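User: Run a structure prediction on this.
Assistant: Running it now.
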Amino acid sequence: MTETESIAYDVVVLGAGPVGENVADRARAAGLSTAVVESELVGGECSYWACMPSKALLRPAIARADARRVPGLSAAVQGPLDASAVLAHRDWFTSDWKDDGQLAWLDGIGADFHRGHGRLAGPRTVTVDGPDGERKVLTARHAVAVCTGTRALLPGLPGIDQVKPWTSREATSAHAVPGRLIVVGGGVVAAEMATAWQALGSRVTLLVRGKGLLPRMEPFAGELVAEALAEAGADVRTGTSVTAVSREGSTVVALTDTGDRVEADEILFATGRAPRTDDLGLETVGLEPGGWIEVDDSLRVVGSDWLYAVGDVNHRALLTHQGKYQARIAGAAIAARATGVPVLETDPWGAHSATADHASVPQCVFTDPEAAAVGLSLAEAEQAGHRVRAVDVDMASVAGAGLYADGYRGKARMVVDLDREIVLGLTLVGPGVGELIHSATVAVVGQVPVDRLWHAVPSYPTVSEVWLRLLEAYRDA
């Protein structure tokens, strides 16, 4: 390994996913010289193995399902999906796993890019071991931002090393449809990938250790998604843990604690995420390698005046949109401190405080039906000590829902803080509800009083009229 002379920047960003890109963009917009370090593809997990490819796989499945619920159109869309066309379109969305366009974007904002594995080597110092065997030393005058994200977490099961299981990466980048697929897990990745591959022609068996799908949402969300998967042909088994796996020729075998033997062509483990912090040199700055990094609301590492941890690595909200939100906050805070702003705006809604990551996080699950939520569930609100009331509405009672899909099935729940008369959380399940969640996010983040929401009139006949039904149910309770 040959070492070059040290290169100084105002800001050094470790990780070039959406979070790192946004930190770099905000730092450059403030006039700070910025370096970005990445060992894989610029654009990160979201662009190549998560958000973009998964939604490219799911969109045809959901569009077909929606079309089949429209009288006059349903008969025209009864055939199977063209799997090869779907996979080719997925490849287009990932730029065939090439990052030329993302590199051009980094260059366009004026950030320097260094390809290689970056590690902290003491305060404000990063070493980059490049693919050519050259080591660069980067120093940061103001800040180093760790934006390295997470990786799939595999369980320590007997036989798992020999099976070569899918993780989220293989599930979103596979180039052939397996005839049979076992999906282990009950969270978002498991539910979405079961939906996608079942629609593409796999016979999916979903093995869920817990009581149901989507355990972090209201219970009815997972129940409705599981019902739809079963109706589509998937075998959904809850309360089932995998105890061992093996590969017999081309067949994967999973043994369960219920005594079942499940066979398939591939097996996907969607059983959690772990931070990519195990080989970052955290020990050189007094932090424990391999763990989540604790930060304050400006995303600065607790106990440091120069190190930031942004996105998944701080474990506040493992979602691309929330990571990008954090990146905008972190970039603003770094710039303010670098330019000597005497007092940062760190009040609950200040420019340098990621307050929305505490109790106002939105999420959409792109299953059929879609499930979307923001803020606190009823159980979370009660556990937090709030005095609340939940009101539920059958989405079929909304005129716009009946027009959207014949036999529309779905449910909405609004959780109201009775002391402050504001919405703490909203959960929606049903076709197309992902496009409704931002209005709920505005209401929750903005702490809009319920009596004021009453005057926000939804257009008729749209699915958004569910807001009126919820507010009526609350007032009439």
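The longest strand covers residues 2-14.
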